Hints:
It holds the Pfam family DctP. InterPro entries: DctP_fam, TRAP_DctP_sf. It comes from Paracoccus aestuariivivens. Its main location: periplasm. Residues 1-19 form the signal peptide. The chain is an alpha/beta fold and 342 residues long. The protein is built from 14 helices and 11 strands. It has helices at residues 2-12, 35-46, 48-52, 63-66, 73-79, 89-92, 111-133, 170-178, 188-197, 207-212, 238-241, 246-278, 299-324, 328-340, and strands at 22-28, 56-62, 84-88, 135-142, 147-150, 164-167, 182-185, 202-205, 221-223, 231-237, 293-294. Strands 7-6-8-5-9-11 form a 6-stranded mixed β-sheet. Helix 8 (170-178) links the parallel strand 6 and strand 7. Helix 2 (35-46) runs antiparallel to helix 12, helix 7 (111-133) runs antiparallel to helix 14 (328-340) and helix 8 (170-178) packs across helix 13. The chain is globular, with a radius of gyration of 23 Å. 46% of the residues are buried.
Amino acid sequence: MFRSLLLSACLLVPFTASAETVTLRVLGQPSGSGLIAQQKEEPFFKALAETTGLDIKVEYLPIDVAGIPDTDGLRVLKSGLFDIVSIRGPQVSRDEPSVLGLDLVGLNTGFAVGREHVDAFMPYVDSRMQSAFNAKLAGMWPAGPQVLFCKPEVAGLADLKGLKVRVGDQSAANFVGQLGATGVSMPFGEVQQSLARGVVDCAITGPASANTGGWPEATTTVLPIALQLAMNGYAINLKSLEKFSADDQKKLETALTQLSSDIWSFSEELYVDAMNCNTGKEPCERGKPYKLTEAPVSDADLKAVSAAVTEISLPIWAKQCDAVATDCAETWRQTVGAKMGL
C-alpha cells in the first residue's frame, strides 16, 4: 500500500530536466582589423555569460584565425557551423545584396545620417536574412568613414584616374571606375604589402583600421572624404536562438543590440583620434603616430560623392538586389529614399 501511494505521489510531481549549458560559437572580426574588435567585440563575448546571466559558454574565434574567407560569413552562419557571426557588410553583400543598401557610396557621409539610414532599412535586411540564411540580424555598426590612402601623392578624386584602388565592395568599385580608376578587391590583411609593392596604388578603409594595419607606412597621402561607413553587424542562427527560452532570447538579442550601439559611439571617437595619429597631430591616444599628408577635400569632390548615390551606386545596386528579391529597391526607396527626399 505504502509503495503504491509513493508511486502515485511521484507521478503527480512534474518532472523537470536540468538545463544544460548552451555553447555559443562566435565567429568574430579579423584579429588585426582594429580596436573595435580588440576592445569592444572580443571582451563583450568573453564576458557575455556574466553580463547577461545566461547559462552559456562562449567560444570566440576571429574569422582569419578560423581560416574562413570573410565573404563566407552568411554561409557558415546558415550551415550552423557558428551560432553568431560578426558579419562584414561589404564582403557578405555578394551573397545578400540588400546588406549593401545600408551603405551605398555617397549615402552615409557622417555618423548621424548613417544611423538614420540603417534604422530605416535594417528591418528589411533582417527579413531577407531570416528567409535566405535562417538568421536573425541583431544589430549593425560602422567601422567608420571609409577614406582614401594613396602611395602616390593625390590632391583629390580626379587624381585617381589610371590608378588601382583597393575597394571593399562592388559599390565602391563602381564609383572609382567612374573616376577612371580600377577597383581591386582583396582581403584587409593583404593590403599593406600590396601598397608597399605597388600591386595597388590606393586603398579605401577607415583611419583606425589603416593605423592598426600599418597602411601609413606604405602610403604618403590620406584624402578624408567619407565614401561609406563600412557597416558590419551581428547575426544569430535561428536554430541556435531556439535553444533559449523567450526571455533568454530577448536577453541575448538586447545585449547584441546594446553592443552595436556602443560601437557606434566608439567608432566616432576612433575616427577623430586615428585621423590625428595618421597625420601627426595631437591628441593621438589610441594609435601609432605617422605623418601622412592630409589632402584638402574640395567642393567638387563633395559634390561627386553626394551625386554618386543617385547617379552610380543606387541604379546599379537596385538591379542587383531586385534580381534576388523583387521588392528590394522599392522598399529602399520607401524607407531610406524617403528620408533623403528622393
